[in-house]
Amino acid sequence: MTERSLVLVKPDGFKRGLSGEVLRRVEAKGYTLVALSIFVPDQDRLALHYAEHEGKPFYEPLVDFMSSGPVTAAVIEGERCIEGFRALAGATDPTAALPGTIRGDLGRDWGLKVQQNIVHGSDSPESAKREIEIWFPGLA
Ligand code: CMP
């Protein structure tokens, strides 16, 4: 079934000039870009986005990091693109992420309080709908 997913190039990826490389991989895989925007997310939007992590030790560093600079936000579309983009992104920990994945090829541990791991991708159809409504209202 055709579905949509939210993809974010996080501030570390944006700062390193990796937005184009991430979008290139999305398109090379055969997914379609439906919406694209670059901006600094505010804390209110991030509190909604990361609601499930509230209270965890990495929550505040995560929100601070995510609001520290511009992100490239995209809605992508394609058959099973939620699972497919997660596979392209690789494991959350960029040190453990397999070569061939975005995080495995381009990421590393920087010894910081939060995993700076270049990209975010929705992890289920329910999260994708919820997240797209937060970042691109009306496009879910
Ligand atoms: P993401 O999966 O996009 O959304 C939650 C983020 O929290 C995750 O990426 C990492 O950036 C961060 N994160 C998840 N687990 C940890 C952890 N154990 N320690 C630090 N940061 C984490």
Plain-language structure description:
- The chain is of the alpha+beta class.
- The protein has a single domain, classed as Alpha-Beta Plaits (2-Layer Sandwich), CATH 3.30.70.
- It is 40% helix and 20% strand.
- It has a 4-stranded antiparallel β-sheet with strand order 2-3-1-4.
- The longest helix has 11 residues, at 19-29.
- The mean pLDDT is 97.
- Adenosine-3',5'-cyclic-monophosphate (CMP) is lined by residues 53, 58, 62, 92, 114-115, 117, 120.
- Belongs to the NDK family.
- Major role in the synthesis of nucleoside triphosphates other than ATP. The ATP gamma phosphate is transferred to the NDP beta phosphate via a ping-pong mechanism, using a phosphorylated active-site intermediate.
What is the gist of this entry?
By secondary structure, the chain is α+β, with helices and mostly antiparallel strands. It has helices at 11-15, 19-29, 43-49, 59-66, 81-89, 102-106, 125-135; strands at residues 2-9, 32-39, 71-79, 119-121. The protein has one domain: 2-Layer Sandwich (Alpha-Beta Plaits).
